Amino acid sequence: MNHIQEQIKKSITLHIIKTEKFKTNLLAVYLTTPLQKETVTLNALIPAVLKRGSKNMKTSEEISKILEEMYGATFDCGIDKIGDNQVLKFYLESINNEFLPTQENLLQESINKLLEIVFNPLIEENKFKEEYVNSEKENLKQIIEGKIDNKAQYAFTRCIEEMYKNEPYGLYKYGYVEDIASIDSKKLYNQYNELLKTCKIDIFISGKIEENILNLIKENENIQKIEEHEAKYVVNSIKKPQQKEINTVEEKMEISQGKLVIGLDIDEETKESKYVATIYNAILGGIPTSKMFQNVREKASLAYTASSSYLKHKNNIFVRCGIEISNYEKALELIKQQIEDMKKGEFTEEDINSAKTNIIATIKSIPDEQDTEISYYFGQELSEIKMNFEEYEGNINKVTKQDIINFANKVKINTIYFLKGN
Asked: How far apart (Å, rounded) are the C-alpha atoms in residues 100 and 107?
């Protein structure tokens, strides 16, 4: 197996992904913590401030200059929401040592620089640099307010918020504008320190890896100063309580094309059901030959876009359509019909084979991108289900038509969200 795990400390796991496919090494650090309204905005601001400067690289310009001197290494960071967890992500990509024109250890330098940015920030008077915090607060405000610009993504986010109202997964990963004003450089620094005392820390290294990589991480001064602790995070998936009535939400906005999102609950959660769910979703709306695409978009011409996606960390399926606002009732009725047809087994073995072919092609392509492979193994880390690609493919191939029908009869509509014009 090319994925090896080593426990660095009680709260820190090193993941080594050995691959000969690339001329680069990709390093990633993930800080995982439970989603909470009180801290979601603070945590979203932390990566943006950390990238502005560290103890020995005091400005983003200095960081960029050093990365350029490292043969054009690149750094990036961001925020994600995976299940009921908020994840702070940091990446550094650099050329593998064997492709350098001179003999030097660029991997070690890359590790040192990334860990410094994440764990040894620029501190002034026992707080973050005020100028950086104020600047990034304004940037974060623009990101949050800008979520309305992408109407399709906005509708999807709103459907999730309605489905998971007053629950952690309903929180927006970047937080809330009303919480930004109360954040100052001291408050943010205190939250950063609290995060390092409680979060789950995963370090990934993908590429042609040297044998002494474990020692390079263990001996790093920034890792040594992190106190051992019990990592607080939520193991995915968490089953959402079922509701008896369908929640219908309509929202008006200045738009010409309506956005319809339907959130589906799955009244079953087992290890095996996740593979069935993947195939069910592909047949319903996940691939070009799906019922949504063929029947709602192509034959009936009721949608500009029609698809579905399976959110495995929360065990939900979401149907998403862009439609003429006047076609709402017709489109909704036809979508419901596709869901009912799945329950009746009105799909063919050819549909199943097409779904499996697409899914397996996606599985086989995972190792073709370093960041995709890292995301795959990190997802397993949060679900605590470990599986290589061959096992995953085998489990997909085992699924039968009767499995899909049984599964389809445990699928229920939870929320119907429609974004329409004024």
From this structure: 11
pTM of the model: 0.94
| The pair of three-digit structure tokens given for residue 118, joined into one six-digit string | 């994440």
CATH ID of 3-224, from 3.40.50.720, 1.20.1440.20, 3.30.1120.10, 3.30.830.10: 3.30.830.10
Cβ(207)–Cβ(22) below 8 Å: yes
Residue entry with tokens 């090193």: 14
* Distances from the Cα of 359 to the Cα of 252, 356, 416, angstroms: 36, 5, 27
357 CB-contact burial (10 Å; exposed 0-12 / middle 13-18 / buried 19+) = middle
Compute the Cα dihedral for 377, 383, 386, 390 and give only its sign. negative
Question: Tell me: the pLDDT tens digits for 142-163?
Answer: 999 999 999 999 999 999 999 9
Pairing mode of beta strands 12-18, 200-207: parallel
Alpha helices in 120-170 (DSSP H): 130-145, 151-163
Please name which of 102, 118, 80, 110 lies closest in space to residue 205, comparing C-alpha atoms.
110
Backbone angles phi, psi at 348, to 5 degrees: -105, 170
Task: Check residue 235 and give its pLDDT.
Answer: 87
The one-letter amino acid code at 56 reads N
Burial class (CB in 10 A: 0-12, 13-18, 19+), 253: middle
- How far apart, in Å, are the Cα atoms of 151 and each of 249, 261, 279? 16, 11, 28
